[in-house]
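Structure tokens please, single chain.
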Amino acid sequence: MTVNKRKKSVRFRGSKTHGWGSMKKHRGAGNRGGRGMAGSGKRADTKKPTIIKLYGYQKYFGKRGFNRPQKVREELKIINVGDLNFEKKEVNLAELGYDKLLGKGKPDKAYAVTVKSCSNLAKEKIEKAGGSITNL
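Here you go.
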């Protein structure tokens, strides 16, 4: 009685053919009728009755739906009102590389901000603190 039988794949290590005789016997997927949906009768006139019985014709054969090409969006570089910690009161965010000003946080000074776009809340908070916003 074998106590600890090694797996076949381990025993055949170093063997060129792993027990299948000639090299051509188990080359590729020819022995099993192809890979994937090959042999299902998809491209021939003979649809396999077992497949149609199990899955139904529409579930197994053919493509469904479509893929629309997606637009590549550029990410905006944003900054919040609470992150405005500048020495000067006049700040040009466009020159600093920011695209949009958002309204999270509280401004610590009355800034005069120049930016490409800003949210309504950010504009409200800046103006409430005594500052102003100029859109480019």
